[in-house]
Specification:
alpha/beta, Histone, subunit A, 2 domains, globular
Length: about 325
């Protein structure tokens, strides 16, 4: 099948607080698209405010698939997303509409596009052992260990990116092979050869402006009841700081507050810092993303309007042979 005869799909990628959801909804007013969320926190029920999930009225008017599909006690992996997203994309395409995948979980986009190598399932014994070592010596220490085992993967990870460092070490301890080597053996079943994908990357050229926007959004989430949301999750009794769902930026810091490890002021400050670090990793990933069409979301001094960014996106999307 030639590239031009493949059904279209759209990736709308960007850092936290870049306005992705508003742009997706605006595009839906102009194009026959259905939205699929690409967010590792929004898959969970009861995690609404801290994940910046669209409110109920918005979701009623503009449905997002792959939101509220898991309980927070359940793990959800990139492999799970690959499987679920492909099903949703096929359903949307079968109706004659276009799947628009929007979010900031860059690993999910990568896995969906390229596929996923066969990797061993999680081993809780090994994970607990690695978590215990990290609590004693810190994740940067385990990151240094990963550099010796798998410098390729280590080079892509921040020294405090606990979940991915843990997974890379876990895979090595189970298989005896570096994660990068296993990933290179098989591209799996991604959509690269199944869809004609236009990849839009929302980029900010003013880091301080983005940092200010992240802080403002975090304080707004606190006003909306983020503290109460995390307290309710904490009081369930079946979750822990090491639970996959609680590793999301903001949730982990407020969990530490509930645990008595931080004051509320410290938790807010650390939550904002974690969100800014996430945005930095997202932007770095996007700038190295092959074939992504960059769209500037600011002019260096202030943010463009949603209409402006939507129009820039439409101009790209209406280029042949996509739409």
């Amino acid at each position: 099948m030639s590239v031009s005869s493949l059904p279209p799909a759209i990736f709308l990628m960007g850092p936290t607080a870049s306005g992705k959801t508003d742009i997706a909804i605006a595009l839906r007013e102009h194009l026959p698209i259905d939205i699929i969320s690409v967010d590792s926190a929004q898959v969970y029920r009861q995690m609404d405010i801290g994940s910046a999930k669209p409110d109920r009225e918005t979701l009623k008017q503009h449905p997002h698939r792959l939101i509220d599909i898991r309980d927070p006690v359940e793990a959800y992996s990139a492999g799970d997303f690959l499987k679920d997203a492909k099903v949703q994309m096929a359903e949307i395409t079968a109706t004659g509409r276009i799947p628009l995948l929007v979010g900031g979980t860059m690993l999910y986009f990568k896995v969906l596009f390229e596929g996923l190598a066969d990797l061993p399932p999680a081993n809780q014994v090994i994970r607990d052992e690695l978590q215990g070592r990290a609590e004693k010596s810190g994740w940067p220490s385990l990151h240094e260990e990963l550099k010796l085992i798998d410098p390729t993967v280590a080079a892509r990870l921040h020294p405090n990116h606990s979940q991915r460092i843990q997974r890379a070490l876990e895979v090595y301890l189970i298989t005896g092979s570096p994660l990068s080597e296993l990933l290179s053996l098989s591209k799996g079943t991604g959509i690269e050869d199944e869809y004609q994908v236009t990849q839009l990357a929302l980029i900010s050229n003013n880091r301080s402006l983005l940092h200010e926007r992240i802080a403002q959004r975090f304080h707004l989430m606190m006003e909306q009841g983020f503290e109460s949301e995390v307290k309710a999750l904490y009081q369930r009794g079946d979750l822990a700081a090491t639970s996959t769902a609680m590793r999301s930026a903001g949730y982990r810091q407020l969990w530490d507050y509930c645990d008595g490890l931080l004051s509320i002021e410290e938790a807010i400050e650390k939550g904002i810092i974690a969100s800014r670090q996430l945005a930095k990793r997202q932007i770095t990933w996007l700038r190295n993303w092959p074939n992504a069409r960059e769209i500037l979301v600011d002019n260096g001094e202030s943010y463009h309007s949603c209409i402006n960014i939507c129009n820039q996106s439409l101009k790209i999307l209406r280029e042949p042979p996509i739409l």
